[in-house]
């Protein structure tokens, strides 16, 4: 039976270090890390995440701002909000919650965030730094950064000789995940919806990372015995057995079946999810240190 990777516990230990770093920064420079989260529209799941982010930021002692814009916000208005945050010295991190409503174009909005405040790591500058292997001056997308900490907790820092397969190639997750694994010396395969014989590709993986949003797609016979399985996907499904109108979360991995084959596996919830919010706090502290001209802590 696989070891369950406890994302909640690992996230809690990272949060302690984030809090300590924030306290040290405030004591030495008077600067409090500031995080602004911008959300457009009233998608319930997005609001849940954004509320959780704000709560965590306050717990960490940050200056935390949430900007909620109506669903019919114009492109110009959204861009002017981001421009103001770019110029606000109290704000070190800006996150625009995705997806945006269909009438808005996310690309120019993401690209106008100052790279040094882009705590999602989505700007071309930050994605490019990661692509060329510069881990020191950029900001790395929170979910892959968090998934990497979970992988390191099982396998250590050096993944030499390991085959890693990432299913999914989004800018938010799959691509940066592949780059982080490569930098840790894994041999990386990027799989996606056009991959032939996905099950066969996955069976080669010592490290299997699934991020498609297809509930329970990864079956037990896709998993190499003893592999480390990281489940990023989140699909919310009705759960009438929990009461009327209740829901529950499913990952991309058929957890009950894969747990019997894998060496280590993340649950959903309680795996990668808690690490995402934690790394957002970590990136905000990093950005605040750099803005103060100090060397940032590593997490
Ligand atoms: N736990 C957390 O903190 C986070 C969870 N998530 C979750 O992770 C999942 C992925 O997110 P994100 O990367 O943003 O999603 P996207 O929809 O942007 O990307 C999904 C990727 O999965 C690939 N894919 C889709 N269907 C299949 C299939 N049947 N076989 C193989 N590959 C497939 C797509 O391939 P192609 O490119 O060919 O279309 C695409 O590259 C979602 O469930 C999301 O909710 C996301 C961020 C944070
Ligand atoms: N600009 C942007 N950056 C993001 O990083 C981003 C985004 N937009 N849009 C949506 C996705 C999704 N995402 C999650 C964050 C936390 C949990 C999380 O905390 N999950 C908990 C469960 C939470 C629950 O019970 O609902 C867990 O898995 O244990 C999940 C998913 C960040 N995303």
Automatic annotation (TrEMBL):
- Amino-acid biosynthesis as a keyword of this entry, yes or no, is yes
* Keyword Membrane set for record: no
Give GO terms for biological process.
L-histidine biosynthetic process; methionine biosynthetic process; purine nucleotide biosynthetic process; tetrahydrofolate interconversion
Top-level taxon in the UniProt lineage: Bacteria
Q: Where is the Tetrahydrofolate dehydrogenase/cyclohydrolase NAD(P)-binding domain?
A: 141-290
Q: Which Pfam families match?
A: THF_DHG_CYH, THF_DHG_CYH_C
* Pathway connected to this protein: One-carbon metabolism; tetrahydrofolate interconversion
Domain Tetrahydrofolate dehydrogenase/cyclohydrolase catalytic intervals: 5-120
Q: Which GO terms describe its cellular component?
A: cytosol
CDD domains attached here? Answer: NAD_bind_m-THF_DH_Cyclohyd
SUPFAM superfamilies hit by this protein: Aminoacid dehydrogenase-like, N-terminal domain, NAD(P)-binding Rossmann-fold domains
What task does this protein carry out?
Answer: Catalyzes the oxidation of 5,10-methylenetetrahydrofolate to 5,10-methenyltetrahydrofolate and then the hydrolysis of 5,10-methenyltetrahydrofolate to 10-formyltetrahydrofolate.
Named from the GO MF annotations, one term is:
methylenetetrahydrofolate dehydrogenase (NADP+) activity
Sorted UniProt keywords: Amino-acid biosynthesis, Histidine biosynthesis, Hydrolase, Methionine biosynthesis, Multifunctional enzyme, NADP, One-carbon metabolism, Oxidoreductase, Purine biosynthesis
Indicate what this protein is called per its UniProt record: Bifunctional protein FolD
Which species expresses this protein natively? Martelella mediterranea
Family membership noted in the UniProt record? Belongs to the tetrahydrofolate dehydrogenase/cyclohydrolase family.
Assembly and partners are described as:
Homodimer.
| PANTHER family per UniProt | C-1-TETRAHYDROFOLATE SYNTHASE, CYTOPLASMIC, C-1-TETRAHYDROFOLATE SYNTHASE, CYTOPLASMIC-RELATED
Q: Its Enzyme Commission number?
A: 1.5.1.5, 3.5.4.9
UniProt binding sites for NADP(+): 168-170, 234
Which reactions are catalysed by this chain?
Answer: (6R)-5,10-methenyltetrahydrofolate + H2O = (6R)-10-formyltetrahydrofolate + H(+); (6R)-5,10-methylene-5,6,7,8-tetrahydrofolate + NADP(+) = (6R)-5,10-methenyltetrahydrofolate + NADPH
């Amino acid at each position: 039976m696989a070891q369950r990777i406890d994302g909640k516990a690992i996230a809690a230990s990272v949060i302690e270090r984030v809090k300590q770093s924030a306290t040290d920064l405030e004591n030495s420079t008077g600067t409090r890390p500031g995080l602004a989260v911008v959300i457009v529209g009233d998608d319930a799941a997005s609001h849940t995440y954004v509320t959780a982010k704000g709560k965590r930021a306050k717990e960490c002692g940050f200056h935390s701002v949430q900007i909620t814009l109506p669903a019919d916000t114009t492109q110009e208005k959204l861009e002017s909000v981001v421009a103001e945050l770019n110029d606000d010295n109290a704000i070190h991190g800006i996150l625009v919650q995705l997806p945006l409503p269909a009438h808005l174009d996310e690309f120019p909005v993401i690209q106008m965030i100052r790279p040094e405040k882009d705590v999602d790591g989505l700007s071309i500058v930050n994605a490019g730094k990661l692509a060329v292997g510069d881990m020191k001056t950029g900001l790395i997308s929170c979910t892959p950064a968090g998934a990497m900490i979970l992988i390191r907790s099982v396998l250590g820092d050096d993944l030499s000789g390991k085959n890693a397969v990432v299913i999914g190639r989004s800018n938010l997750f799959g691509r940066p995940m592949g780059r982080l694994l490569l930098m840790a010396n894994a041999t990386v395969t990027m799989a996606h919806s056009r991959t032939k014989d996905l099950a066969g590709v996955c069976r080669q993986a010592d490290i299997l990372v699934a991020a498609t949003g297809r509930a329970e797609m990864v079956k037990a016979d896709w998993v190499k015995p003893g592999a480390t399985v990281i489940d990023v996907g989140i699909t919310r499904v009705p759960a009438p057995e929990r009461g009327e109108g209740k829901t529950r979360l499913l990952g991309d991995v058929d957890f009950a079946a894969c747990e019997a084959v894998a060496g280590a596996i993340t649950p959903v919830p309680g795996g990668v999810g808690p690490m995402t919010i934690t790394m957002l706090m970590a990136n905000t502290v990093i950005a605040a240190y750099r803005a103060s001209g100090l060397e940032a802590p590593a997490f």
